[in-house]
Amino acid sequence: MILITGGTGFVGRTTMRHLSESGYNIRTLIRPSKHSPRLPCGIETDISLASLADWRGVRASLVGVDIVIHLAGAEKIGMQSDLDLTEVEGARVLAEASADAGVKRLIYLSHLGAERTSAYPLLRAKGKAEEYIRRSGVSYTILRSGIVFGEEDHFTSSLAMMITLIPFVFPLPGSGSTVLQPLWVEDLATCIVWALNDAATERQTYEIGGPEFLTFSQVVCMVMKKLGRSRLLIPVAPPYLRAATRLMERLLPDPPATTFWLDYLATNRAADLGTLPRVFRLQPSRMEERIDYLRNRTWSREFIQHQMAGRHRKR
Question: What's the CA gap between 59 and 118, in Å, rounded?
Fold first, then answer.
């Protein structure tokens, strides 16, 4: 039995589909909420209700579980999230409960740049979470991923909304020259599932990304091309853009960009291009080949739908 956290999220739903197609039995840890969880359709899964801060609840969820895949994260919430609670304490509780339950394997999805001494709060929290997992005594695999994209993501979809809503121009953090290595969500899910059957990946930390290095401005131009829209790229000093983003986080129930998003774009986020082919025997997909899902959609309407859904979740 596999327990997966974050199964209702963007990466989680794709990973659950891959696990189901590979014949694994799945249990999904879902925090108690008044709202119905968004689980992937057509996939059989046990449901366990518990907050990651609830040691007893998490421990009960681990009965009969051999493998834990920890995908839950708080980056989409932005500055409203309590990183020490959601990222650090959640990882500590899950790691300690997994050791107590005799779990054989724990796979954790982290970020490129995760370090406990990082200047950026989310990456610092991810680094602390990694340490708890390494010290737990459970055999682990940590995947520090580049920014992940795919249908219903929080990256290309957010860019599409902002390009649609902002007339004539598009603001770039600094010069827009930050180097990224976008990874298709299907490739990431494949790596997670394949790692389960590869003993060589145990007690290892891998930095992974897609097959190409792209600047943020190149990514924006790629998205604009798929949308059939043109905007003048305007460099904006990061402090001004951060202030505008903080205001957006306060005013909108579901902002298309958060301060954590800006943190990720503050410096280059790239890994060795050869890691996926060498370790996972996988040739990842190029970004331009996999973003056709951006076409023929009314992004202004989707933005409004996101705000209405966000307001509903916060009631």
Answer: 31
Instruction: Please give the backbone phi and psi of residue 110, each rounded to the nearest 5 degrees, phi first.
Output: -115, -165
DSSP conformational letter for 284: P
Give per-residue pLDDT as tens, 6-25.
Answer: 998 999 999 999 999 999 99
Hunting for tokens 């040691």 — which residue is that? 55
pLDDT tens digit sequence for 60-116? 999 999 999 999 987 665 555 678 788 899 999 999 999 999 999 999 999 999 999
Rounded to whole angstroms, the Cα distance separating 299 from 148 reads: 20
Going from the C-alpha of 123 to that of each of 133, 197, 229, 244, the distances in angstroms are: 15, 28, 33, 22
Residue with tokens 């209702």: 8
Question: Which secondary structure element, helix H or strand E, spans residue 104, and what is its range?
Answer: none
Q: What's phi and psi for 205, nearest 5 deg? A: -120, 125
Q: Which domain covers residue 248, as residue numbers?
A: 156-179+212-269+283-313
Residue 17 tokens read as 């589909």
Whole-angstrom Cα distance, residue 76 to residue 68?
22
Ramachandran quadrant class, 108 (left: phi over 0; alpha: psi -120 to 50; beta: rest) = beta
Pair of tokens at residue 214: 């792209």
Helix axes 90-101, 121-135, angle to 10 degrees: 10
CATH code, domain with 35: 3.40.50.720
165 in the same domain as 107: no
Q: Is residue 151 part of a domain?
A: no
Helix (H) and strand (E) counts in the chain: 12, 13
120 with 195, same domain: the answer is yes
Which token pair is 56?
């007893």
The two beta strands, 214-215 and 179-180, are: antiparallel
Distance CA 315, CA 297 (A): 28
Nearest to 5 by CA among 102, 103, 78, 79: 103
